[in-house]
Amino acid sequence: MKKILKTLLVFAVLILFAGSAWAAVGCSLNDPDRDVKRIFPESTGYKTTFVTIKEKGGEALKKEIEDKLKDKLEPVYESIDVPYSFYIILKGKEAIGYIHGVNQKGKYGGIQLIVATDTKGKIISFYYQKMSSPEAGKFMDTKFTSQFNRLTLDDFIKGNLSMNDPSANSPEDFRATLRGLKKNLILLELLLQK
Amino acid sequence: MKTKIIIISLFNLIVLSGFNKFAYSGESFFYKEINLIGGYSSRDRWIDKNGMMNSSVGFEFYRKYSGDYGDFLTADLQVRAAYDSTKNSRQAWGAEIHNAWLEYKFSQYAKIRGGHFAPSFGLEPVLDTHSTLLQTLAEQDIGFNKDWGIEMRGSFPKFDYEAGLQIGSGMSIRRQDDSYLATLRIGTPQGRNLQGGFSLLSGRTLESEGMRTFPKNKLLFRDAVNKKRVGLDGQYLYGSFLFKGEFAYGQDNKNDVLGYLTEIDYTLPSHQNIEFELQYKSWINDIHTNSSDEPTLTLGATYKLNQSTALRAAFLHDFGMMDIRPEDRFVVQFYFLGA
User: Fold this and answer.
1) What distance in Å separates residue A45's CA from the closest CA in chain B?
2) Which one of A138, B24, B175, B248 is most buried, counting C-beta atoms within 10 A?
3) What digits encode the pLDDT tens for the residues B310-334?
4) Tens of pLDDT, residues A161-186
5) Is the CB of B191 inside 8 Å of chain A's CB atoms?
6) Cβ separation of A33 and B85 shorter than 8 Å?
7) pLDDT score recorded for residue B88
8) How many domains does chain B have?
9) Hey, is the C-beta of A41 within 8 angstroms of any chain B C-beta?
10) What is the pTM (predicted TM-score) of this model?
11) Which residue range(s) make up the domain with B60?
């Protein structure tokens, strides 16, 4: 017991100097090299950049994101100090598109939604990097994910969405997918393109 | 004493104050780490460590280097100042270098890495166990989680590969008795709900005690152990469950050895910041000898306060081996990793 108290005392002193606490990284690609080449076969490289809502605009930007999303950002998983990873896809020196992923709370656990767009924000490809659901196969099927191709943030804001829930018993995950994709496109626009 | 002062001063200067402004600057991160562990063991009574993991403060610096044509170099440095209250005050502090590598990308198919990183064998290279109370088989199987050397890796549409050549010493930089470690792992791409890998290992590894890089951890034997291994590993995500498994078979000198691990992780759907883990792990030092088995059963829980901070607890039952009596251990952990 004495050694535990001794250890805690030492670390308590150190923690006093530790300063403010910001969050660890958000959703990043497991293997960007493979994903970039698969989605943008003409690409010659990509550049990774990390951006937070806090450094880009703070509380005012958070409010703007929430207004567009028509929902509050969840304080534990969507705090403004989470750095988002953006992949700027290059052909030579020229940017030809972006890839960006977000975490989204699903019915059974975390969902990771990855979206690739052209430089104007039109979806070229969408896939789940992680999908915690007994019906994951139905969601991850390209018959479902390809229905989002060619959509833009405007389509999500105006509700121009015609796809149906592919699952039998997981409407929460369908709604989570729509929210996550919309959030992804909002963050792309406001954190990277603006 | 001099070493202790240098380590503490370095961490106070670098980690705990001055680097805040470099938290993330577009291409890089600088994270602070605090890892506090305490518990009770039926064998050792009050403890402030779990296995080889001590309470520590540290940092991680991660950076992508890019030019006009994109990313070409990645660097990662993850260091801890660890405190071991069982040692006298002169020896209580030590520096642990966990990740310390530079990786240059030739193409999607070929990247070369040099420094300190996980050997290309089993679950360890595809799981982040840096902070977790539940560990893979690596400690029993290879003797350490990370080693110094070089590695080539790449990804193809249907599979990933990685092949490493390391010095066989683990945390400390030392080479003797012709030590080395050669490993190869071929696996399915990460990001699938069902993943698997096949691994091979050949080497002469040194056996040491503790996780310290500076001052060097204690070398248990002067002679290296001849190791040969073949391994299989897999993970399957189904709903709120994540199943993990690992199996290794081979030789340590002339003994036939075998180890396996099974683990089930369950995320509470209603409170997804709470996870439970159940792991059964066994390592048999000589399959032809009775009572050479080292099985452990661990029940763990994780509560994430936010994306930076987690509270963990684990109850471990070590079934004991030969003349070592069984142990029950309860450990709690406070873990923070953030800018």
Assistant:
1) 5
2) B248
3) 999 999 999 987 667 899 999 999 9
4) 999 999 999 999 999 999 999 999 99
5) yes
6) no
7) 83
8) 1
9) no
10) 0.90
11) 2-338
Parse chain A into domains and list their residue ranges. 21-193
Residues of A in Cβ contact (< 8 Å) with B193: 131, 136, 140
AA letter at A31: D
Using an 8 Å CB-CB cutoff, list chain B residues near A82. 307
Neighbours of A142 (CB within 10 A): 11
To the nearest whole Å, the CA of A77 is away from the closest chain B CA by 6
Model confidence at A24: pLDDT above 90: no
Number of neighbouring beta carbons within 10 Å of residue B78: 21
Structure tokens, B293: 């088995």
Task: Give A107→chain B minimum CA distance, Å.
Answer: 6
Rounded Cα distance, B331 and B51, in Å: 10
Q: pLDDT of A132-157, one tens digit each?
A: 999 999 999 999 999 999 999 999 99
**pLDDT at res. A10:** 58
Mean pLDDT confidence for A101-123:
96
User: Which residues numbered 48-67 in B keep a CB inside 8 Å of some CB on A?
Assistant: 48, 55, 57, 64, 66
Provide the CATH number for the domain around residue B248.
2.40.160.10
Q: Does the pLDDT value for residue B8 go beyond 90?
A: no
Interface test with B, best of A22, A91, A102 (most B CBs within 10 A): A22
CA–CA–CA angle B319, B136, B120 (5° rounding)? 140
- Asked if the model's pLDDT at residue B2 lies above 60, the reply is no
CA A109, CA A88: separation in Å to the nearest integer?
A: 29
Does B105 reach chain A within 8 Å, measured CB to CB?
yes
Residues of chain B in contact with residue A26, where contact means CB-CB under 8 angstroms, are 307
